User: Fold these one by one.
Assistant:
Number 1:
Amino acid sequence: MATVIIPTPLRKFTNNTPRVQVAATTVQEIVDDLTLNFPELKRHLLDEQGKLRTFVNVFVGDDDIRNLQQEQTAVQENTVVSIVPAIAGGRA
Amino acid sequence: MNYQDIKFSKEELARYNRHIIIPDFGLEAQQKLKAARVLVVGSGGLGSPVLLYLAAAGVGHIGIVDFDVVDDSNLQRQVLFGVDAVGQPKVEAARERLQSLNPHIDITLYNTQLTSANALDIIRDYDVVADGTDNFPTRYLVNDACVLLGRTNVYASIFQFEGQVSVFNYVKNGEVGPNYRDLYPTPPPPGLVPSCAEGGVLGVLPGIIGSLQALEVIKVITGVGEVLSGRFFIFDALNFESRTFNIKRNPSNPLNGENPTITALIDYEQFCGMKAVEIPVKEITARDLYDMQVRGDDFQLIDVREPHEQAIVSIGGELIPLATVSEQSGRIDRNRPVVVHCKMGGRSAKAIRELEEKFGFTNLYNLKGGIIGYIDEVQPELTKY
């Protein structure tokens, strides 16, 4: 089971769980699984076309999936996938 | 000034003694600090520790940009200020506090908002910028200004219990590192990501993250250690976990990717979707387009529909589907009129706004009514769908 780290701003959509275990072989499968189990997460992660929003970065291990195979990036048993949205604190 | 010409008084040497005696730091690093010019944008949660530690470290010239006034609710985390400063402009209260910490440094105040109109002029006077602002438009503004001017941008950002740090646009061995647009090409639409005012922030968090930011500024200035360039650090205060990711430059970065299209500062509030008013786009009627085609006028026709739509019916446009418009902006001409069309005129208007806002195009015309309108008006023999 791969481990997905849910960022603070999105934890309220995952019953406040900071880490979710997902059985998956690609990042796409992880995203599908998450949005299926946590429907409110969907609009924060995906745009109207169902693609990952560009202000949400996904890292497999220490690498940005944009530098790997995007949503087709493979995920193993002990992979840690991190979801990291843009944050700017304060006003906006 | 060349740092090698920097001299210290007896008092300064005594003050910075603990830096000077570190074997891998020494007098040379201290000279570099004194010669350095650092602009700190925002003197709030992040700015407080950044300013305090840079002043303590002996950075010779510090600029502070903030248009705000000290509020009591700031004191939960903005440790630069005290109750006596409530009601005072932050930059002035900051200078008082910092000069009392270190009278040997120079501080310049900018009691103003950083905008596209003044950012280049202000940042130009400094070597390094530490961005501790609290909104997305300014993040992109600072980023773009630093890339356009060739300045290092030490970035840090916080929300609730999480923080991020990286060093953008850093040059090492002639190579330029990633910048904010490589990491986050577009900002979240307003309202999707809550702010500290709505979401709150653990007061000590900016203290931690801002201190890391100050650390990176010091490393950039002195050349000591490994600067956090090409790396993106995130910290989760609740779980006490941190992770450092590898980040790279993105070839489609409109600032300094393979086909740079941004050569000036833009309207960042518009970029971040904060301007409610929809800017009208220039339009062209189907009849006018038809005439241009028949006359053989010199122009480019762009079709922003999907491939399967173009397969049904086409009027000769170059296909650049809407979602790919930014990354393919290099294909769009700037030197002759460009007509953009879709099925009915909605998507093409969106494409034009995006291109105008992000890349400063001024020669784009929307086909009113799209290809359907065109078929109805001038070529009824074509297939509608």
Number 2:
Amino acid sequence: MTTTLPSMHLVDYRAATGLQQVPTRNGFGEGLVEAAQRDPRVLALCADLVESTRMQAFRDAFPERFVELGVHEQMLVAMAAGLASAGKVPFVASYAMFCPGRAWEQVRTTMCLNETNVKIAGAHAGVSVGPDGATHQAIEDIAIMRCIPNMTVLVPCDAVQTRKATLAAAALDGPVYIRFGREKSPVITTEDTPFEIGRAQVFRDGADVAIVACGILVQNALVAADELAREDGVHCLVLNNHTVKPLDAASVIAAARRCGAVVTVEEHQVAGGAGSAVAEVLAEEYPVPIRFVGVRDRFGQSGTPDELIELYGMGVRSIKEAVRTVVRRKR
Amino acid sequence: MSTLSPERRFELERHANAVRRSIIESLLAAGSGHSAGSLDMADVFTALYFEVMRHDAARPDWPDRDRLLLSAGHICPVRYAAMAHAGYFPLEELRTLRKLGTRLQGHPERTRLPSLETTSGPLGEGLAQGVGMAYAAKLDGNDWRVYVVTSDAEHQAGLHWEAAMVAGKYGLDRLVCIVDRNFIQIDGDTEAVMPLEPFRAKYEAFNWRVWECDGNDMGDVVDTLRRANATPGKPHAIVARTIPGKGVSFMENDFLWHGKPPKKDEADLALAELQAAYEKIGVPA
């Protein structure tokens, strides 16, 4: 039995083997080169993390359009704003913890209030950064980006979608934040899977609980949904909420209306994150029982990505528990 | 001898005097704002808008215009006044400073008023954006210049020196950073709050060329800007020594006037003093 929607052209994510594992940052690297081929205004700026952020292919292909700034995260954003003011389309990349983390006020003033066409690529987001530990695990970045007017916030679900999100960001006139991870993660979408900023995607249909997920945890949500169908007879709708801002409110409300209960899933603090964005809309427009899967007011630590996802309550088991909790509250 | 003829210098000094009077009037109308730094940079802004910069008030988005960035956004009354006198908008609009719906926000916002180039106020951020613009111009082979007006105290901010380091690396010689060296900041004397000297050695260590001038001497300001513009190879820092509150005797050198506007009676006194000075410009002593 398959309940994934054919129009989404997903791969069979349930396959125990053979699922391609690619870091989402690779999709950024590919998308950036492609964006530069399409648009001569595209530049790339990096703060001493060229390999990690996957900017090396761009640097090799377009050395004259690449700017290496060293350990200058605030400069990264403010200089890019100046470049954008002069007609360029600059992409800046660092670890999400440092940019936007260290550069928040520059993002607010020189990008968003100033309405400049700058794109921030935040690498190494989430606890799945792993062994580097809490200092390098950005789990507050969605919150601090989505609260700023004029900002678009993208959290693509796999490497293929990250490539598309990068191209879409380049084509959009305005500030964009794209978030991606360090570790290899399953590729669940294909070239044929549609992508449009601001349009959430129903990856799996169901009428009992709507799981609204973003980023690499979308695959966990799909697996949890399958297990719940098998074990509990509970059928979940899974919405890939890749655009946290502007949130696709219509799709979120439609999912809540269809299912009557919602679980949000993100590799981020519950406070202020993608789940909060969903809750803000539903509290006003269509209140239903809701549970948040995410980090609960704690910092990360060293460990393997799988260990940390599990420990911080974002694994398949935690998603299933959250679904079971809201199902009980429906009745 | 200055490159300016005496006649031209007197003309520019009259413009600067008029700009100062507009600053007083707009601050009085606003009821809040920064007096001292606005007044002390009137000569520099007059030199830029009326003599040195390539610009056209009728075409604020002219692609080949020189870019003027006010990093120290809190002294925007001087920029607004100079722009109005240079023909960017009617003088009457200066009275809308800081009021609801105005294009003349308490700190400058690019999206509200063409040609501001940046949105500023958070200190230490202007040079970074100016570096981006100068880099883009160099990349595209454009010959416009970027002038960034900074306060001395904002040189305490780390981002400013990130920007200085980048400009030095890329030898952005069409970038000019003007430092309003007035020695005051909100909490007092800059050298007591957090020492900034030596400016020259700091900038030179970042691979900049450093120029010093009397920022309240029109001939010196214009000549120094021209000398910098004629010297290729490195970005330029112009340390302009200024007297905070310049032109209004009871405001001069008093840091308490950094962040407050004149009251009505104080404004009347200031305007009378400036008017008297205006009438003496070009008159042999």
